[in-house]
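Writing this down once: the sequence line spells out the residues, with the fold written below as integer tokens. This is how one looks:
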Amino acid sequence: MLPVLFSIGPFHVYSFSIFLILSWFIWSFTYWKYMQKEGIDEEFTFGLMFWATILAFFVGRTVFVLSHWALFADTPLRIFTIWIQPGMSLVGALVGGIGAILFLSYQKKLPRSTALDGVVRGFALALLVGLIGALLDGSSVGIQTGGPIGVRYVGYAEYRHPIQLYLWLYVLSSLLFLRLMRKKFHLENPGFFGLWFLFLFTIGSFCIEFVSVRSIYFAHLSLDQWLCITVWAEAVGMLYVRGGGKELVRRIYDTISRRFVRKHTSES
């Protein structure tokens, strides 16, 4: 682990801060280019990016603090000093950012499928960079392991699961999978890439949470896991609606009804 990249006298440059800024630039550039391609007004796009950044940071930090309260219990002021006590919940930041963009898009009557695809595409690429900083920082740690893949986090003598590396590999695999399956999953249609990525991402994040250390649990699940369940359910619901699920169920119901009526008529 390398929480501090380098120091100049009393001034310290933290790996988490550098990679967080870098990942934000990747997300904002990717989102801007996508919205520009879709013909969305740049001023409106920059407004979306601004509020998405604010809300993503606020929700991501809040969820991290609640999930790691032991780090802040003695000195609550650390909550506001991310350069001293780094840490962000990726799922929380995702929920905050998407929530802001979808709400503002609805207010301005911008197709939410377009807004969703843009923010998720940028988030997926930025995540691959941000997770490197999260691993170097080590503010979130995995549970103890004796396996060959364990790593030592700063402040912990025993080997622990490299949860950031797990998620990095999972996100990369998900992007490659979606690229291979883009025609089968109709990823060319507005909104489908965003929904399918959220579907996959929340499953991976939910599972990795079982080998992560958290301070607070609700009904044996962490706050991140409850957020994953919420986002996953929304993604499944939207895929069901946009993917023709209603029509499929209606056709199945009509087929069963006709067969039942035909059978009942023949028996009479």
User: Anything to note?
Assistant: The longest helix spans residues 42-67. Strands lie at 4-8, 11-14, 217-218, 221-222.
